[in-house]
Amino acid sequence: SHVHTAYHPALSCREFLCISGWSVFRGSCYLLSETSGSWYEGRADCRKRGGDLVVIDDDDEQKFVATLTGWSTWIGLSDRETEGTWKWVDGTPLNSELKKMWEDYQPDNGGRDTRNGEEDCVHIWKNLKKWNDLRCDASMQWICEKSPDC
C-alpha cells in the first residue's frame, strides 16, 4: 500500500506569513511606508520589498486600506500611459464599481490651473477616504501590497 501526499500550495501558504510590520487582509500583506516620496519612489520601494503599490479590487479592500492611514497616501493607480485611461500597476483597468471612490469633481488632471501640471497618479485623500489625481512627483506616504512569504 503506497501513500501519496499531495502538495497543496494553498494549504501551506498561510496569511500569517506576512512579515512583521505588514498587515493582513484577505490573503495579501499591506504596508504603510514610514517615509514620503513621489509615486515613482513609492513604487520602487514596494517592488524592492517584493510587492507593488496597492491594487484595490473592491469596496471592502478600499475600506481596509483606508484604515491603514489618516494621511494622504499613494495607491497603484495612474493614467500615465493614456490620459483618462486609469490602470493599476498590475495592468488591470479601473473597474466601474470603484469609480465612485473618486472625490467629487475628480479626476480633473489639475483642472484649469496650469500650476498643477499633469495629474497622472492617484492617492487616497486623508480623512475623506476618497481618491484624487495628483502630480506624480508630489510627496506623500504610500501603501504596498504583496503576497505572503511562503
From TrEMBL:
It holds the Pfam family Lectin_C. SMART domains: CLECT. InterPro entries: C-type_lectin-like, C-type_lectin-like/link_sf, C-type_lectin/snaclec_domain, C-type_lectin_CS, CD209-like_CTLD, CTDL_fold. Keywords: Disulfide bond, Lectin. GO terms for molecular function: carbohydrate binding. Residues 25-145 form the C-type lectin domain. The keyword Disulfide bond applies. CDD domains: CLECT_DC-SIGN_like. SUPFAM superfamilies: C-type lectin-like. PANTHER family: MANNOSE, PHOSPHOLIPASE, LECTIN RECEPTOR RELATED (PTHR22803). This is C-type lectin domain-containing protein. It comes from Poecilia reticulata.
